[in-house]
Write a structure and sequence with these properties.
127 residues; mainly alpha; 6 helices
Length: 127
């Protein structure tokens, strides 16, 4: 079976979710220990995530336009919201902590990426 790049990305996505859920159900402490080790060096994990986002993004934007991608991102964001709503008190504390000091200092790359995507969508639709 020859999968397209998008099908390969979707397969990795599906497998990662199912593996994570199985590990979370069978060994939640093990999962948290694993996540803690990965997140220890935030600079390295940020570089890894940016590199993966770039690679996946190249394939996504080769197959879909920004309007399609934005609609899919909204869908994903809503699914994340559904996951976090039961933990709203804890997430609100995290949000308040993120707003201490200069929120752009640690989150500038995320603000930049999301702003660029939003501007790209509006430019494509209206200009």
């Amino acid at each position: 079976m020859n999968l397209t790049p998008i099908e390969t990305i979707a397969t990795i996505f599906a497998a990662a979710i199912l593996i994570k859920f199985v590990v979370l159900i069978l060994n939640p402490t093990g999962w948290m220990n694993f996540a803690g080790k990965i997140l220890k060096d935030t600079k390295v994990i940020m570089i890894v995530y940016l590199a993966l986002a770039y690679i996946v993004g190249k394939y996504i934007f080769a197959a879909y336009n920004i309007i399609d991608v934005a609609a899919i991102l909204l869908f994903g964001s809503l699914l994340y919201g559904i996951a976090f709503i039961p933990h709203s008190k804890a997430m609100f504390k995290v949000g308040k902590n993120m707003m201490r000091g200069d929120p752009l200092k640690k989150n500038w790359i995320s603000f930049l990426i999301w702003s660029a995507l939003a501007i790209w969508v509006l430019k494509t639709l209206f200009f």
